[in-house]
Amino acid sequence: MKLLENTLLRAGQIRSIEGTPCFDEQVIETFLQAPYDPLTSFEGPPNYSLQRGGRGKDHPRYGRFVYALARHYQPDYVVEVGTFAGGTAVGFANALIENGHGRLLCIDQDSYSHGTFPEVVQRNLQRVGLPSEQLQLCCGDSKTWLPDLANDLSEKVGIVLIDGDHTFAGARTDIQNALPLVKPGGLILVHDVDRGRSMDEATEAHPHPVYEAFHSVVQEQHLDWCILKFIRKHLGIIRVGRSPSQTKQSVA
Ligand SMILES: C[S@@+](CC[C@H](N)C(=O)[O-])C[C@H]1O[C@@H](n2cnc3c(N)ncnc32)[C@H](O)[C@@H]1O
């Protein structure tokens, strides 16, 4: 696994890895060979002043990395919490199209996109060419959606991405509620697991809310984890194990 870290470092993609890499090394090859941008004609929400036209400052790398994970693991289902305009969704969508199977479920309560979710992401996913039968756009709060999805998708989801509520309680609830969905060996990705930058959601009790939420769950549940410190932002990765105690908990 040192090889994996060295390859990413040499390629100038990360600063370091915290923890022990818990995903397959072949993902890196796919990542480094993937097209630079999963959707060059990406459309952001109108009048939204984000860099890269509606994608955060770690794009397009972030979209390219989730593309590589989905190509490698060939998930039957991908669940994304916090889709916004679809910066990561277009990466997943490209992979599912190339895989020839797999369904993408995007959950967002439209709190950042101000009335433009799901229309803008739908247009971006149409540009990529994701067939409608491979897509479900879920409008609303992830705290409701994830437990609801667990009724049908218990232990069926290959990859969950969490990039929604960045408060300590919100991120922790999303990670806990994602666990019952994930199949053994599947992954939970958690964006913004950073300690080095200030976040609007920081409090005195939780100065690094998503980082603390991530660590509180992996420690409690004894999960395999690592954090990829990409050049601009950090992505936590949890590899869900086979123990039932790691996959049965839901939080209201
Ligand atoms: C940082 S953006 C997601 C960025 C996206 N993954 C990308 O790659 O461009 C966070 C999104 O999470 C959504 N969000 C925040 N809290 C949420 C919640 N409790 N349930 C559902 N969506 C939520 C916001 O509306 C926003 O669109």
| Low-confidence regions | 243-252
Q: Count of helical segments?
A: 8
What is the CATH first-level class name of the domain at 34-142? Alpha Beta
Q: In percent terms, what proportion of residues is strand?
A: 15-25%
Q: Helix/strand/pairing class, anyone? A: alpha/beta
Strand order of the largest sheet: 1-7-8-6-5-2-3-4
> SSE order, as H and E?
HEHHEHEHEHEHEHEE
Summarize the main sheet. Answer: 8 strands, mixed
Number of strand elements? 8
Bound molecules: S-adenosylmethionine
- Supply Rg: 17 Å
Measured as a percent range, the helix fraction is 25-40%
CATH architecture of the domain at 34-142: 3-Layer(aba) Sandwich
The coarse silhouette is globular
Provide the CATH superfamily of the domain at 34-142. Vaccinia Virus protein VP39
**N→C terminal distance:** 37 Å
* Overall pLDDT confidence: 92
CATH names the topology of the domain at 34-142 as Rossmann fold
